[in-house]
Amino acid sequence: MKPHFVEKDGITVAFFPDTLRFYEINKLTRNVMKDIIEGINKEHTMEQFSCDDKSYESLKKVIDENCNCGWGHNKKQNDKGVVNSGKEEVNILKKLVINITNVCNLACKYCYANGGNYCSEECMMSEDTIIKALDVFYGHYDNIENIQIFGGEPTLNPQGIEVIGKYVQEKFKDEEKEKTKLGMVSNGTVMDEKLLEIIKKYNIHVTVSLDGPESVNDKMRIFKNGKGTGRVVGDNIMRLRKFTGEPSCIESTYNRVHEEMGVKIKDIIKYGKEEFGIEHFHITPVSGNEDDEFILSNRDEFVKSVSDLMGENSGDIPINDLISTVINILKKKQVCKYLCEAGLVLLSVSVNGDVYPCFMLIDQQEYKMGNIYEDDLFLSKKYNEIKTKLINFSKFNDERCKNCFNNTICHGCIGSNYFETGNIHRQSEVNCEMHKRITEEVIVELVKKMRRSQQYTEVQ
């Protein structure tokens, strides 16, 4: 793929999607590169831009080394969409999400899960079903890297949390392979002594949902009686921090209320860091239909947050996941052909044992892959039909994505896609544009940072 040129704040950058390399250039160099790419006569280009032969050939070499030579071209990909590293393929599940309850004690206005119960009757996952799920997935995979305890609100089923903790602890008691990491996503409203002990005993990493200070959080994240959750959650975070060192992450859903109240992404992060000492933040735009009252009018704040969090005057404020993901891909040069790996190396189990690619798709029957009580779950027609559909998607072949400069970096959520566009492989236009602009902003900020440390490459 040809390079993508980014221009901002007096900086011009040539970004090569195929190799994930980028170079700061001047405008004259950009013009010469464009001529080379378009096949303009060499002598004409050299004369028009006063470019000598050595400089021309040097630029041509840079282009030849970085174009049409990367992901989706001559690199062999495995069925997980990552370029093979030469290592033998391993049968490992990256994440298993266990929905131990579809009961929730809140009435968050933007909830995609119908108040936590998805489209089912409210119930708790039984101990037998939890153990069966763990038996099935540990029996099929060589290992599970992460188990995410989910809901509903998982802390309403403390027995279920403990069953998972005991199972994993016992399983890895005498095994040399790396122990499965346990995580839990909670609304933070229930945190009694028993729960604190369970979290500490089984080293469960906790993510708490909080949309910022009470003034904004309590507009959307409310109890069934309409009362705001902010103060209760804040107090529980402090107790959790004191007793266990958790939560390790705050998850926020950025919505119209933030926009209308002038609360920026950096404000949420500063609040979480200064108030609770949290360093990891997962802040995403709210999902929903265009006519939902909580939907953002645009995604400009996510784009602006890049300079707010990476700029020279940002201080030691932590970086949001949407930004750090782009940085990590640029650094590690590890690319996935999928927007999301759900259904391939990430799977979810509902309270009754139904298996779905993503927890957001629970009770969406077209994406039900099977049930843990089926003897041939992983061989069943439905399971493999859905898995094949997911495997066959590639950003490098999709008509909408294949020529996009961001296709080696772009990522997303098939669940959010489903609720926004009705197609798990189709991001909304506004989301797609946001990701492209974030990538451009990150590249420019990295160039600025390298300038400040005098560790950058400028092609002239």
Automatic annotation (TrEMBL):
Transmembrane segments: none annotated. Its cofactor is [4Fe-4S] cluster. The keyword Iron-sulfur applies. It comes from the Bacteria. Keywords: Iron, Iron-sulfur, Metal-binding, S-adenosyl-L-methionine. GO terms for molecular function: iron-sulfur cluster binding; metal ion binding; oxidoreductase activity. Pfam families: Radical_SAM, SPASM. Residues 90-313 form the Radical SAM core domain. The keyword Ribonucleoprotein does not apply. Belongs to the radical SAM superfamily. Anaerobic sulfatase-maturating enzyme family. NCBIfam families: rSAM_more_4Fe4S (TIGR04085). This is Radical SAM core domain-containing protein. It comes from Hathewaya proteolytica DSM 3090.
